[in-house]
Amino acid sequence: MQVVLITGGSTGIGRATGELLQSNGYTVIGTSRFPDLYTDHPFPLIQLDLQDSRSIQKAVGTIVSQYGNIDVLVNNAGKGIAGPLEETPLEEIRSVIETNLVGAAAVIQSIIPVMRRQNKGKIINITSIAGYSGLPFRAAYSATKSALHMLTESLRLELKTTDIQCCTLAPGDVATNISNGRYHVPVNENSPYHAIYGDARKDMDAHVNDGVSAKTVAVTINRLILINKLKPHYTVGPFLQRFSVYLKSYLPAKFYEFILSKFYKL
After folding, report:
1. Domain span at 21
2. What is the CATH number of the domain that holds 188?
3. Best label site of 33, 85, 241, 262, fewest CB within 10 Å?
4. What is the pTM of this model?
């Protein structure tokens, strides 16, 4: 029976993925910064904080000690952030980088030695379609997801001589509670961004509510686990958002930027 570790398994995509995989016969362990808050969770949660390398090492050691191996890592935990870059506190930018990029890398570093001993394993890094483009008022978030995208490409080459595979899965908008957990720069009436950022923030929340279900993402993750040879990158989500990834590859950069500016009413 394959053992799957899902970081950020308490809610949203992580929970939906764990529930589906468990129903399909996998042994699933999720992580949370505060697992004691989820007493009736459908699968086990252990404590892990992406900004604390010791908690990462402890969590991985606990799983290996209890289950013997980790066959699949779904590197899902992350932090949202939105606001004009000019007005975003640097400590919040540092925090999202530490969580979404450095924390994800720390989990990978802890998992690879385990997978080497097993001579197999899969790492699925959950990025975002926002990582394919620099979206307005999501500069820090887009940057971290783009960086994780590139990190995965490098990692694939470094693991080429092993049986450890990795890929990214970039969701578009997913109907979860991400808006509640996302750090938002306050809409300041004296800000030069007041009108456009205020409207954009409302649109962000509306787009999330109109997104695909977390189970749709879970189904895709289940499919990736079953694929023999993973490609570098996959997307999931509303068609137009997925299509935008391909548009960017073919359209002149300024024209693509023009389309984005119209979409975001800038």
Report:
1. 3-263
2. 3.40.50.720
3. 262
4. 0.94
